Automatic annotation (TrEMBL):
GO biological process: zinc ion transport
Gene Ontology CC terms, in alphabetical order: membrane
Signal sequence, start to end: none
Gene Ontology MF: a single term: monoatomic cation transmembrane transporter activity
Name of protein: Cation transporter
Start and end residues of each Cation efflux protein cytoplasmic domain: 229-305
Transmembrane feature ranges: 14-36, 82-103, 123-144, 165-187, 199-217
Lineage of producing organism: Bacteria, Pseudomonadati, Pseudomonadota, Alphaproteobacteria, Sphingomonadales
Amino acid sequence: MAPHAPASGWRTNLVLYAALAANLGIAVAKFIAAAITASSSMLTEGVHSLVDSFNQILLLYGQHRARRPADAEHPFGYGRELYFWAFVVAILIFGLGAGVSVYEGWRHMVAPEPLRDPLVNYVVLAVAAAMEGTSWAIAVRAFARSKGECGWWQAVHDSKDPAGFIVLFEDSAALAGLIVAAIGIWASHAWGDSRIDGAASIVIGLILAAVAVLLAREAKGLLIGERADPALIRQVRAMMEAEPRITFVNHVRTIHTAPDRVFVAISADFDDTLAMGDAETLIEQLEARLKAALPQLSSIYIRPEKREDAEATLPA
C-alpha cells in the first residue's frame, strides 16, 4: 500500500475552527445553566468546553509557528513545534479539565447544594450535543480521509499530524461527558440526591484524564521523533535498489520533522569502479528522483558506505 499523505492544511484548520466555534458557544451556555441550576456536572462541562476552546487556539498557534522556514539555528525547520503544543494540550486536559472536574465533583458530594429545576440544563445539553456532534462529524470525516486503509486506532498511533486526532478525541470525550452529565442531572432529581450530580462530575473528570493520558503518549512519541510510514521507507529502498550502480542498500533511516516533512538518511554500497566525481553526480540524480517521487522528503542524505562497514555500525 502506498503511503498516505497527511490531511491538507485547510482540512485540519476547518476541523479546528469548527471545534473552536462549537466549544466557545457551548461553554457560555453551560456556565449560564450552571449558575441558574447550581449543577456540578454542568459547571464541570462548562470548564471542559472552555479548556477545549483554549486547546484549539494552542493548536492553531502551533500550526502557525510550525510553518516558519528553516534558518541557521533550526536547519530542518520548526515543524516539530506543533508536537510540543500538542503535548501542552494533553497536560491542560489533564490538569485543568480532569483536575477541576474531579475537584468540583468531590466538593459537591461533600457539601451538596439544593436541587433546582433541571429544564435549563436539559435544553443546554441538547444544544451542546447538536453542536458537539457536528464538530465531531467534521473531525471524523477529515480523519477518515487521511487514515487510508488503516484501522482507526492504528491510524491514530501512526498519525504524524496531532491536530486531527486531538480534536477527534476531544469531541468524543465531550459527547461522552454530555451523556454522563445528563444521566447525573436526571438521577439527582429522580432520586432526590444532589450528590449524584457530583459523582457525575468525577466520572467526567476520569474520562478527560484517560483522554489526556492517551494524547500525551502519542505527543511524546512525536516529540522524541518517529520514523516515516513503512510504505514510504520501502519505496525509498526500492528506488535505491533499482539503480544498477548501487550494489547494496545498507539502511534507510527516517524521522518526521513535521507532519508533512521527512528527513531520510540512506547508507548504500556503490560499485567500486565508480569514480568519485561520477558518484557525486549519481547521488545528485538519486536525490532528484526521490524528491520528485516523494515530495514529503524535505531533506535527503545519501552516504556511500561499504556493506561490511555499515553492518559493523548497526545496533545489535
